[in-house]
Amino acid sequence: MANLREHFQTSGYTLHREGLRRERLPLCCRTSLRKTGTGIRFLEAGGCKTVLPLEACQVCGRRYATEGKRYLPVRNLLQFDIVKM
Known about the structure:
Blueprint lengths: L1 H9 L16 H6 E11 L5 E9 L5 E5 L2 E5 L7 E3 L1
Antiparallel strand pairs: 1-2, 1-5, 2-3, 3-4
């Protein structure tokens, strides 16, 4: 898997990912998010790499990478590099 990731980083192809949102979370997730002890590596719009903490809803199981009041829904963990926090 690492070779494929390196291929996309060095080739002309770009992986388009969703950006961080400022919208409100679903009702069950607003109060039920808990830290998972892991994070994801994320490439910001300015080109800086950062690690966002990963949180999961205790009610519905949805996962979000959060940064302040912004969040990124994480539907498939295979899209990201997972890091222990």
